[in-house]
Amino acid sequence: xxxxxxxxxxxxxxxxxxxxxxxxxxLLGIAVGVIAIVIGLMSSDHIMVERTYANLLLMGYYFTCVxxxxxxxxxxxxxTQSSWSAGLIRIPQAMSSIxxxxxxxxxxxxxxxxxxxxxxxxxxxxxxxxxxxxxxxxLVAGKSSFLNVPGFxxxxxxxxxxxxxxxxxxxxLSYKEDLEGGLNSYKxxxxxxxxxxxxFGFTTPIWSFDTVMSLEAHWFSTMFGWYNFAAMWVxxxxxxxxxxxxxxxxGYLGWVNENHLHDLGKLMFGFSIFWAYVWFAQFIxxxxxxxxxxxxxxxxxxxPEYKPWFWLNIILNFVxxxxxxxxxxxxxxxxxxxxxxxxxxxxxxxxYYVMIMPGTVDMHxxxxxxxxxxxxxxxxxxxxxxxxxxxxxxxGAKHHPLLDESLHHQL
Length: 411
Description:
mainly alpha; 15 helices; 0% strand; globular
C-alpha cells in the first residue's frame, strides 16, 4: 500500500460553505412544515388535529433517532479504532451535535401529547388505573408502576440528556484534537465512547418502548427495541451517505472516495437485512401463535388504509436495498448510493408511520398535506441545522491518529 503521507495533497482545513440553493430549500422546507402543522392544529376537525400530533411525534422521534445514530456512529468508530471513517467523521459529528436540539423538540412533542392532546391515551386516560372508575383497565393498571407520566418524562429526559451530553463532549474533543494534535483527546474519546455505547445499548430499547410501543399499551414485544434500533441505525447511515455524496458533489471532501462509499454501502446492506430479520421474527411469531392479545397489533395494520403501506415497508426497507446494494460496483457509485439512501430514508419514515399511526389516530382516513408538510418541515430543519454546524469547523480531522490509513483505504 505504501506509507507515503498524503496530508499535503489535501486541504483538511477547508470549510463547507452553506449557501445558495441548499440553504434556500432547507428554509423553504421549514416554512412549509410550519404552515402544514399550524393548519392541522387549528383545524376544527378532531381527526385532523390527531393526525397532526401523530405526525409531529413521528418526525420528532425520527429526527432525534437520526441524530442519535450520528453519535452512535462516532463512538463506534472510536471504540473499534476504525480507520476508514476518519476522513468523513465530521459529518456524523455534525449530526450528533444537534442531538440536544432534536431532543428538546421531541420532549416538547411528547409533553404536549401527554397533557394537551392525549397521544398516549392507551395508558394515560382519566381513571384508567382507578378500580372505581368506569374507564378502569386492569392490564394497564398492572403496568402503571412503569407507565406513569412522571416516570415516562423522567426517563425521556435522562435518556436524551445523556445521549446529548456524550455527543457534545465527543464532538468537542475532536475539534480540540484539531487544534492541539497528539493523542490526549483521542484517548479521552475512547474511554467516553466505550461508556456511551454501553449506556446507549441498554437504554435505546427502553426509550423506544416508552416513546412508540406504549402508544398501544396492551401490546408488547421484546423484539421491538432492537427493531427500532435497526431502523435508527440504517436511517443514520443513509443520512450520512446522502450528506457525503452531496458535499462531494459540491467540490469538498476530495479525500473521500469510492472505497469509503463502499463501506457505507456494506453497512446499509447488512443492517437492512438485520432490520428485516427482526421485523420478520416479530411478525411470524405473533402470526403463528395466533394469540388474540398479540395479533390485535397486526390486525390493525391489515385494515385497508394501512395494508398497502405495511407491505410497501418491506419492499422499501428490505427488498430494494437487498437488490440494489448486493453488487460490489453499485456500492461504489455516488449517484446509486444517493438514490438508495434517499429510498431508505423514505422507507424508514414509512416504517415509523406504520408503527405510530394505527395506535394514535382512532379513525385514520386520510394521507395528505399534513403528513407530507410535517415531513418536509423536519427534513428542512435537519438539513439547515446539520449543514450549518458542518460549515463551522474544518471538514478534515487533520490530527486524527488514523487519518493516514483512511487516505490509503482500499477495498
